[in-house]
Amino acid sequence: MNYLISSERITIRIILVLILLMIFFNVKSYSQSEQIKPDSVQTDTTKFEMKKSPWGAVLRSAVIPGFGQFYNESYWKIPVVWGTLGYLGYLWVDQNDKYKIYRDLYNQSLIADPPGNENYYKLREGYKDQRDLVAVFIGLTYFLNLVDAYVDAHLFDFDISEGDGISRINLNMRINF
Fold this sequence. Notes:
The chain has helices spanning about 1-25, 55-65, 65-70, 75-110, 120-155. It has about 180 residues and is an all-alpha fold. The chain is elongated and about 80 Å long.
């Protein structure tokens, strides 16, 4: 019974970490209306060239998670990637150690007392399932790291500065007593 409480807590923690990751990785989702000025119209001789290579960022993040974010100059995302992977790695090692303990106890109980080993079997399988679930979350985090590097490299040249072409609506309120 204690195992179930522990596995539910771990699953809730993992889900919360993934929700936080999704929030952090979607911070740069702004929109902008594009207005072309007559003097900035591109001619046939000028061509837009991206400053950052999206596939270069993906390759960097594939080799070292977070390196694509470094390449894209999104430095604040690096601790998020490393912290999430570190936390999930810790959970995987912890679940794997508990799995090994109950695996050995189960194997010893088969020799010593065959009828009373179903509890060790349930615990062994529970920790194995949790370990495998954490491994899936590690893979998803790694994949999200790659997707974020790709998207961030595409949006690197996207101008989000306030200025020309953006109209503002001012709302003033006066209260007289």
